Amino acid sequence: MARFRARLALLGSATALAAGALVPAQFAGAHPAVAADRQWVALGDSYTAGVIPAAGDVFEVPRDGCDRTDRSYPQVIDRDLGGLFALTNVSCGAATIENVTDAPQHPIGRHLPPISEDPDYPFPAVPPQSETVGPDTDVITVGVGGNTLGFAGILMKCPQLGGESSGKGTPCKDALGAGIPARLKKVRQEYDRMLAVLHERAPHAKILAVGYPTVIPKDTSKCGFGDLTQFGTITQGDLAWLRQDVLEPLNKAIDDSTGTQEAASFVDLYASSRNHSVCDDSKWVEGFVTLPDQLSFVHPNALGHRNAADHVEEAMLNAID
User: What residues have CB less than 8 Å from 20, skipping those under 6 apart?
Assistant: First the structure.
């Protein structure tokens, strides 16, 4: 990290006056900066796009339903290093690995009935994210996998089962645990294929596979049962299971997959965010809701995206040595 900070200091005087660094936040990343030497494409799901109000404002007008926010890590990096990289950000909330590779996506915006209604829904389909990658792409960042695993569905089911059990036991593990290995296998297979497609489209690009941050603390007693700013009625036993058998193996599957491509490497966000889970006082990931009345559904806030930006920036700068 010291090497990275030193580079940033050297870059600061050179990029502070660059046109890309002076683009207002609401327009940053919408169009690649003409002066930038290197082409960067940001791919991924909601943990990349931002999506929730705690990760900033949606800057695209008209909205496409992907809900990229101006404090998400690609936009933070674009402001930090905008004179060095020209960003094309096509990350999209709810994207699966296949939506990155070759399947069009129908974005949902913030339409989660009966919890929330999006006035702009439905949105037109967006093309597969990989279509923005080409022979001139120098760096690709991609953060995806959770939706292929079905993590959102698990988060919907576990509170229901935890409430029915009055907070006791591991009802979600009991109901869903047997199917997790097959889900993880699917993630690994589809991730391998995605990396191969990205490398084929951009044979000279460095691919940075961005992992997921710490969401659940090791000490689940920090999490208050029934607290919607945390995990609602998910039991402590199920939280421990989700951390050990679902989220940590998801990161490992992504890390292992990068070993199949010489041009790919893994960016670990888990270790640096270990003390900033949903249930920590200094949280970098919001729970089901953010007070007073914002639905956040377990997504990184601006602090979490700032941490991600630091680690991804370091990897990007190392990639262009």
Answer: 33, 35, 36, 78, 82, 83, 86
CA triplet 138, 142, 145: central angle to 5 degrees?
Answer: 160
DSSP 53-77: GGG--B--SS--SS-BBTTSHHHHH
**Partners of residue 300 on adjacent β-strands:** 285
Domain of residue 41: give its range: 2-319
Cβ burial of 3 (10 Å; 0-12, 13-18, 19+) is exposed
Beta bridge partners of 87: 40
- As a whole number of angstroms, the distance between CA 291 and CA 276 comes to 18
Neighbours of 134 (CB within 10 A): 12
Residue 195 belongs to what H/E stretch? helix 180-201
**Biggest CA-to-CA distance, the chain:** 59
Cα–Cα separations (whole angstroms), residue 111 to 158, 274, 304: 21, 31, 23
pTM for the predicted model, two decimal places: 0.90
Using CB atoms within 10 A of its CB, is residue 152 exposed (0-12), middle (13-18) or buried (19+)? middle
The domain that contains 277 carries what CATH number?
3.40.50.1110
Cβ neighbours around 222 below 10 Å, total: 16
pLDDT (average), residues 282-300: 96
Given the structure tokens 């603390």, which residue do they identify?
Answer: 217
**Gap between the Cα atoms of 321 and 316, Å rounded:** 9
Residue 47 CA to residue 45 CA, distance in Å, equals 6
Q: In total, how many domains does the chain have?
A: 1
Which residue reads 């020209």 in tokens? Answer: 86
Residue 164 pLDDT > 80: yes
Reported as a single tens digit per residue, the pLDDT across 144-159 is 999 999 999 999 999 9
